[in-house]
Amino acid sequence: MSARLWPASFGGRPTGERLERIRRSPQYRDGAFRNARPVRMSGPFEMLPMLRETLRRADRLRRAPAGRLPLAKPAAVTGGPPASGLRVTWLGHASVLVEIDGRRVLFDPVWGERCSPFSFAGPRRLHPVPAELSELGPLDAVVISHDHYDHLDMPTIRALIATDAVFAVPLGVGAHLERWGVPAARLAELDWHESADVAGLTLTATPGQHFCGRGLRDRWQTLWASWVVAGPEHRVYHSGDTGYFPGFAEIGERHGPFDATMIQIGAYSSEYWPDIHMTPEEGVRAHLDLSGGEPGGVLLPIHWGTFNLALHPWEEPVERTVREAGATEVTVAVPRPGESFEPATGLPLDPWWEAFAVRPAARRCAPDPSLNARPADG
């Protein structure tokens, strides 16, 4: 099928100078982007047993919250700028608003009802968005980790064109955004280890271990990345989607230390894709690697709680993360969707998810968030 005949939601195909730049990338070998080491992941037909399991009623109930989740209104909507210079707001899944040194960066914004190319099928939201895009106010940068539907949403991108934000994307992903109407002049399209200066911030695309593609015919033709955003006073890291790999330590050495890391801890499967999504324990280990083996800054668990993308129970990723963080003395923040926090002045630590977990009686035991408690100032 000609790229022009694809549904718009599938995005665009790299051509011309963009395609030539892709072919020059050290990450592009033998006609495809490659990870630094081979990865294990099931193909479409090997996933059929998992699809059958998703239909089992008891397991299906455990993969969703038992009730309407308590949303918070972001401080970016209700209050002024952060007193400490750094404020982080988890907006659900991998969408995070970071207010850093007077600038505002939105990571992986997905406001759509489904993470799918179609409005009538695909994983649906487990909770509403905590705030409308128009409520978030001005943005300096929109950062995209890769082109999967739960990280790159066409209607959301089209709505964000009305802002003055620069769109920072991995190599090749700019073809999608240009097809959707983003001006080329507002794209910062980067290979791993490349940086762009945006409004006084340095945005750097860093390695990850994942894959790409919005259809069966375009896998491995755009790059995936984690991201470092550095301001004059603060630094943050967003993992995007990734398996655990040795590159975290190098990223920490080159770009750290970080005041906050946003780490993928959900949608894991040891059977179907062990190398492209981290388990919660691997996520905590990645945070430690990024911090040179020390507890480091604050870990914000992301990529859980909003879309049902794996077979594990809905609450399991955050519970395992909190437990592992306590065992390794890592400071973890566990906000409700929409909740904001300043790493320097106090963290959300209440195990709010407990009231919404569907679990057998034998599993009714909560991790102890006090293991990571950091009292708020005042």
From TrEMBL:
> What InterPro entries does its record include?
Metallo-B-lactamas, RibonucZ/Hydroxyglut_hydro
Which residues are the signal sequence here?
A: none
* Domain Metallo-beta-lactamase: residue ranges: 103-304
TM segment ranges: none
The protein's name is MBL fold metallo-hydrolase
Organism in which the protein naturally occurs: Streptomyces johnsoniae
